[in-house]
């Protein structure tokens, strides 16, 4: 109802779109069947609809980043890759706690973004966000990254709110032998990765181990450590049956820095274990006639139990407290588990019509005294069914439609529809009009969180600080997006252009609200509670251009502009007005390759720091040398990440500097 009523406010901006859609349906009656399909030589994507589609046929705007671009960009983490996507912002409250968001409106645990690795969601039910520093995947094992720039809940369900990042890892059979990657550089960053790809009778496997350490920002104690093991196996049981078994885990840790006053922080080292097991059975006659059954299990555990001491007068700025110290015991120990089984069936109904449909059962369990102030284990049960249809009305017109219906034990039943109409009006040229909805279920922390901190004063007193008092009865967040997309592909010139104009409406955004006069709090008599506080509307324009001038020269630009923000959103500055990323690489003589990137974001504010304006101005250079020594293929690379000035990363205290790195990659037979 909100969505329909606000649509009239923007009817001028969208009237042309509406007229275009109407005329399009009329012209269907006179379309000619003998026209050719214009999808040849166009990148293929899977994650937009669960159907294998040319990117020009996808129901949403997509960004594809392949392994070559990841390597040439010098990315050291998955969030670094997302800087190349239009509209993405990256920040680090501390080094070990990065956060990524699409079109802003996020905080350190962003619950409005979905990351899927080989079909399994990675966000944890504990805090709702993605544990970017503790993801059990090595960057060198990534084959490609597909980003759906918009809600994709009709395909992936929970958390597929603002955008979906889908990672496909290298198939075990895609390589053979040993691969070693080692990197070192600024702020004592060290990384070593060793992989082996092997095979047996009708089987292939990949084993990867990795160890990393990073001292983070030079001026604060935010070190990060991690050790990873992953195993991927694939058996071809019969010509049409295959079984994949993947398992892995990462033991990581990073310093949490919760500011009390700028001069005196509560520092604690949080250790996390993130482990998974995944089984996938596929019965496939073809890409359009297949059955896929997946089960996966995830375990996420946080160990953070220590005591910090600080001076009370520095907290309150009151000389009456001079000489009094405070012991703050911090016990954030908590864990979560997830079991999910999912089945999907792909079927071609006719030469023009394909569908995919299925369902899933999920159970999330969460336990943590720090979060709930008790020892109980809470569970969330979720059931969902989904379907997507791709119907080629004729060679010029394509209709995509999808629907996901979900029922969970927190917010009951929700629906996420999608509809898009694509007009392929000339070879390599298409225009798409689409609508999609995303839904975000409240987290257990938001619904039932009871976070309390006690401070032991040296004079014998005890102060109780009620940090979060959840009151429950939250409504799910929803986002409705209308977008008008344009895609152009010219294989002869190796040129592709993706442009999009979209209108976004977010309802019932969950945010914290300060409660005053809390009797059980003798520290500051205040606590935070979660509430459906804000409705937002805004529009975006995006442009993505990629050109390969030759097999040695590759150029790419990604730009996003946000406009027509409502008064609340504009006042709070939660979305930057402009983001820009530029990428270029050129092959030089003697097996050298030079690549460079430029990243810029206008000012915006992360939702949990209220007044600190983030901004990005960064220039990277990378020089790579390939050589062959005996039977080894060796790559050496030097990289510089240069701060161009004016950059603020999350907090003013995070002092940025130019950093330099060296990388060695060795391939053994």
TrEMBL record:
The gene is cirA_1. It comes from the Bacteria. Gene3D superfamilies: TonB-dependent receptor, beta-barrel domain (2.40.170.20), TonB-dependent receptor, plug domain (2.170.130.10). Keywords: Cell outer membrane, Membrane, Receptor, TonB box, Transmembrane, Transmembrane beta strand, Transport. GO terms for biological process: siderophore transmembrane transport. Residues 267-603 form the TonB-dependent receptor-like beta-barrel domain. One of its GO terms (cellular component) is cell outer membrane. This is Colicin I receptor. Residues 55-164 form the TonB-dependent receptor plug domain. The lineage of its organism: Bacteria, Pseudomonadati, Pseudomonadota, Gammaproteobacteria, Chromatiales. It is found in: Cell outer membrane. It is a multi-pass membrane protein. The keyword Transmembrane applies. Pfam families: Plug (PF07715), TonB_dep_Rec_b-barrel (PF00593). PROSITE patterns: TONB_DEPENDENT_REC_3 (PS52016). GO terms for molecular function: siderophore uptake transmembrane transporter activity. PANTHER family: BLL4766 PROTEIN, TONB-DEPENDENT OUTER MEMBRANE RECEPTOR. Belongs to the TonB-dependent receptor family.
């Amino acid at each position: 109802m909100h969505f329909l009523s606000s649509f009239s406010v923007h009817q001028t901006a969208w009237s042309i779109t509406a007229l275009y859609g109407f005329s399009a349906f009329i012209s269907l009656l006179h379309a000619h069947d003998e026209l050719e399909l214009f999808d040849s030589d166009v990148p293929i994507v899977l994650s937009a609809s669960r159907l294998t589609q040319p990117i020009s046929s996808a129901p949403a705007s997509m960004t594809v980043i392949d392994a070559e671009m990841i390597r040439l960009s010098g990315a050291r983490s998955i969030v670094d890759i997302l800087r190349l996507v239009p509209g993405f912002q990256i920040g680090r409250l501390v080094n070990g706690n990065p956060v990524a968001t699409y079109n802003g409106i996020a905080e350190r645990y962003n619950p409005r973004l979905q990351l899927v690795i080989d079909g399994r969601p990675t966000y944890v039910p504990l805090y709702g966000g993605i544990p970017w520093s503790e993801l059990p995947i090595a960057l060198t094992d990534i084959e490609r990254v597909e980003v759906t720039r918009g809600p994709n809940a009709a395909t992936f369900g929970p958390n597929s709110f603002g955008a979906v990042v889908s990672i496909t890892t290298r198939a075990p059979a895609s390589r053979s032998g040993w691969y070693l990657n080692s990197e070192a550089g600024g702020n004592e960053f060290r990384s070593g990765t060793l992989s082996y790809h092997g095979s047996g009778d009708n089987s292939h496997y990949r084993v990867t181990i990795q160890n990393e350490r990073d001292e983070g920002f030079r001026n604060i104690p935010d070190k990060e450590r991690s050790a990873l093991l992953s195993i991927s196996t694939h058996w071809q049981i019969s010509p049409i049956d295959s079984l994949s078994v993947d398992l892995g885990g990462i033991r990581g840790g990073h310093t949490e820095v919760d500011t009390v006053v700028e001069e005196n922080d509560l520092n604690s080292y949080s250790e996390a274990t993130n482990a998974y097991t995944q089984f996938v059975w596929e019965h496939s006659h073809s890409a359009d006639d297949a059955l896929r059954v997946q089960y996966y299990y995830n375990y996420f555990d946080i160990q953070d139990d220590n005591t910090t001491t600080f001076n009370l007068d520095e907290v309150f700025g009151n000389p009456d407290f001079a000489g009094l110290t405070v012991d703050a015991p911090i016990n954030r120990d908590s864990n979560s588990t997830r079991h999910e089984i999912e089945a999907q069936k792909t079927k071609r109904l006719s030469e023009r019509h394909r569908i995919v449909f299925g369902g899933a059962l999920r159970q999330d369990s969460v336990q943590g005294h720090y979060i709930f102030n008790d020892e109980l284990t809470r569970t969330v049960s979720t059931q969902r069914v989904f379907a997507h249809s791709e119907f080629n009305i004729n060679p010029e017109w394509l209709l995509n439609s999808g629907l996901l219906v979900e029922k969970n034990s927190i917010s009951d039943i929700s629906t996420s529809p999608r509809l898009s109409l694509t007009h392929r009006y000339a070879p390599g040229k298409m225009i798409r009009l689409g609508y999609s909805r995303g839904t975000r279920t409240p987290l257990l922390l938001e619904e039932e969180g009871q976070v309390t901190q006690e401070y032991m004063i040296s004079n014998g007193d005890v102060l109780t600080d009620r940090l979060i008092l959840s009151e429950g009865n939250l409504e799910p967040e929803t986002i409705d997006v209308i977008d008008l997309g344009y895609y152009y592909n010219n294989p002869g010139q190796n040129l592709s252009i993706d442009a999009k104009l979209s209108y976004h409406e977010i309802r019932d955004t969950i945010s914290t609200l300060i409660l005053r006069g809390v009797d059980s709090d003798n520290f500051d008599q205040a606590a935070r509670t979660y509430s459906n506080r804000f409705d937002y509307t805004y529009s975006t324009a995006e442009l993505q251009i990629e050109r390969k001038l030759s097999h040695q020269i590759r150029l790419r630009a990604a730009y996003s502009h946000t406009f027509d923000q409502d008064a609340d959103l504009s006042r709070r500055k939660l979305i930057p007005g402009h983001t820009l990323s530029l990428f270029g690489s050129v092959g030089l003589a003697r097996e050298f390759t030079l690549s460079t990137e430029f990243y810029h974001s206008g000012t915006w504010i992360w939702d949990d720091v209220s007044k600190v304006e983030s901004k990005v101005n960064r220039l990277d250079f990378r020089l790579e040398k390939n050589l062959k020594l005996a039977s080894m293929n060796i790559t050496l690379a030097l990289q510089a990440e240069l701060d161009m000035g004016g950059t603020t990363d999350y907090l003013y205290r995070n002092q940025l500097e130019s950093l330099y790195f060296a990388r060695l990659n060795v391939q053994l037979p």
